[in-house]
Amino acid sequence: QVVDSGTTAWMLISTALVLLMVPGLAMFYGGLVRTKNVLGTMMHSFVCMAVIGVLWVICGYSLTFGKSILGGFIGWNPDYFLLGGIDETITNGVPEYVLAMFQGKFAIITPALISGAIAERGYFRGYILFIVLWFLLVYSPLCHWVWAPDGWLFNAGAGGVIDLAGGLVIHVSAGVSALVAALFLGPRLGYPKTAMHPNNLVMTMMGAGLLWVGWYGFNAGSTVQSGLETARALTMTQISAASGALTWLIIEAITFKKATSLGFVSGILAGLVVITPAAGVVQPIGALTLGAASSLLCYFALLLKIRLGYDASLDCFGIHGVG
User: Fold this and answer.
1) For residues 237 and 235, what is the distance between their CA atoms, to the nearest angstrom?
2) Each residue of 113-134: b (16+ CB within 10 Å) or e?
3) Could you write out the three-class secondary structure of the chain?
4) pLDDT in tens, 207-260
5) Which of 69, 132, 298, 309 could form a disulfide linkage to 270, CB 3.0–4.6 angstroms apart?
6) What digits encode the pLDDT tens for the residues 133-185?
7) How confident is the model at residue 54 (pLDDT cuts 50, 70, 90)?
8) Which residues pair with 95 in a beta bridge?
């Protein structure tokens, strides 16, 4: 095939936008923890860029997009080891190197999301071991099932599972894993009797803004083209995020008679998360509805967390899992 320069340029931009979400997530999480834990919490996101970045090159791309083995449980292609065998490969007019790096950014940010559940507790070296094992044993098989052409969920039913940019692969997997990790580790010392206020909501808001911008590459880039489907995915992403943010403000206005910055950014994320799998298939009314519904359900999920008493520090499950 011949390289399509327009599509390739967009995929290069999308790859950079998704990577931008990692420092955005680090700022988002870093602003929500206590001052003494800011740097450690931000490192939980940044270290994924190195650890998963290397693992992806060594074996991750092969495990996720290689030919199905073990009854379709996982993929493997020895030619993809150390990204070999793709030097001159072009898919949909885009060099395979670009597609591999684009998918690699998804692999990086997913375990970083889970860190929100274990913030302010746990050893850094233990977290690194966790993300290595989680990437190999959870993310890689799930990604293969949903996105590899011979994955069993990719071909399930009449038309395969609909998951444009990772509603199942990224947000459900990270959200559920975060809940399990939080329950396994137990609450932070002093929780819930000791007040644990965010240290810098300005930083959290800036992080949310970067996540919103990066999400355009996340969703629209996942179309792997530069055309109508790309435009639809970008538009629905914007609509759902705005709807989610506005709905959360309305909920707070009704409940507390005032709006909060933390509620606003929570609504943004709820709207972005819910549209991730569906951005390529819904119309504007669908995106508005999904954003509003996600904010409503995520809001009640956070209330339920308080009632149940478990300590998921930064609400990864309540936003990403439920959304």
Assistant:
1) 5
2) bbbbbbbbbbeeeebeebbeeb
3) CCCCHHHHHHHHHHHHHHHHHHHHHHHHHHCCCCHHHHHHHHHHHHHHHHHHHHHHHHHHHHHHHCEEEHHHCEEECHHHHHHCCCCCCEECCEEHHHHHHHHHHHHHHHHHHHHHHHCCCCCHHHHHHHHHHHHHHHHHHHHHHHHCCCCCCCCCCCCCCCCCCCHHHHHHHHHHHHHHHHHHHCCCCCCCCCCCCCCCHHHHHHHHHHHHHHHHHHHHHHHCCCCHHHHHHHHHHHHHHHHHHHHHHHHHHHHHCCCCHHHHHHHHHHHHHHHCCCCCCCCHHHHHHHHHHHHHHHHHHHHHHHHHCCCCCCCHHHHHHCC
4) 999 999 999 999 999 999 999 999 999 999 999 999 999 999 999 999 999 999
5) 298
6) 999 999 999 999 999 999 999 988 778 899 999 999 999 999 999 999 999 99
7) very high
8) 90
Q: What per-residue confidence (pLDDT) applies to 26? A: 98
